[in-house]
């Protein structure tokens, strides 16, 4: 489309593109299959990049090298993936402002979902809560967004919700469809995420319908403390692996090793899960402006429950700042219906 900001462009019709075939321009023919890699290099050649250094953010395989040598002779392909990746890792002030706005909306959606559960109690299903929460969140966002239904308005907005109750909380990513009646004594995962202009992230709270026993309280306490450890330790000058070790040390030291199923967090951004990772094998140095999820979850399949809060943690000069306003307290998370 010529209405977008990119003016110097070339297009192929669709994958797989046939040479010279553009039904949208009235040209219908069964052309030879176009090698899209070479197609890109031909476009660069037309723009004067032959014989120069070209940065690429994909693996330079032997096939890529051969195509470049044929179409762009004497051109050097230089991997620059780390440069592109860093642009996604360090957030600008505008990106941070949009992320905070998004989390403000979703914090209100969490309050709505909590009230919905308290009001409807065991008459509701987890699916019903998720559906009502999503509609509430979308209505909040869209009443503030100017839009006319045309392209390029309300771009980059995404709202998703997932609520699961009972044994489905006992796994990080259960594979069943969640349409379960809410019951007393069940764990409830109130989860979801939001993006505005591609900025924002996930926001979960691990709740428990009363009553709960000592085992559930112990797992919940350890998990909740781990979210605090991760956030406060996420400061400039330490590695992601160091923060991960602090969290995992606390989990293991608290007798929770068998309930640990994944790393504490991932980088948060426009792609959702992205580098760097709060993981034992990621030795990236944490820098101001990075954002992470906050989910050192603990899962007990043998006991039929699990707990996994999450948030967006913004690395500031002195500490990791959690952007949501939803409490991590028992007063908020222990629900009496």
Describe this structure in words.
- The protein starts with 35 loop residues before the first helix and ends with a strand.
- The relative contact order is 0.13.
- Helix 1 packs parallel to helix 2, helix 4 crosses helix 5 and helix 6 runs antiparallel to helix 7.
- By secondary structure, it is of the alpha+beta class.
- Strand 10 and strand 11 form a beta hairpin.
- It has 2 domains: 45 residues, no CATH class; 249 residues, Creatine Amidinohydrolase.
- Strands 3, 4, 5, 6 and 14 form a 5-stranded mixed β-sheet that branches. Strands 9-12-13 form a 3-stranded antiparallel β-sheet, covered by helices on one side. Strands 1-2 form a two-stranded parallel ribbon.
- The longest helix is centred in the N-terminal third of the chain and has 28 residues.
Derived structural class: alpha+beta
Number of strands: 14
Shape, principal axes of CA atoms = globular
* Uncertain residue ranges: none
Order of helices and strands: HEHEHHHEEEEHHEEEEEEEHE
CATH level-4 homologous superfamily of the largest domain: Creatinase/methionine aminopeptidase superfamily
Largest sheet: 5 strands, mixed
Overall residue-averaged pLDDT value: 95
CATH topology of the largest domain: Creatine Amidinohydrolase
Briefly say what this structure is:
The protein is α+β, with helices and mostly antiparallel strands and 337 residues long.
Keywords:
alpha+beta, Creatine Amidinohydrolase, 2 domains, 5-stranded mixed β-sheet, 8 helices, 14 strands
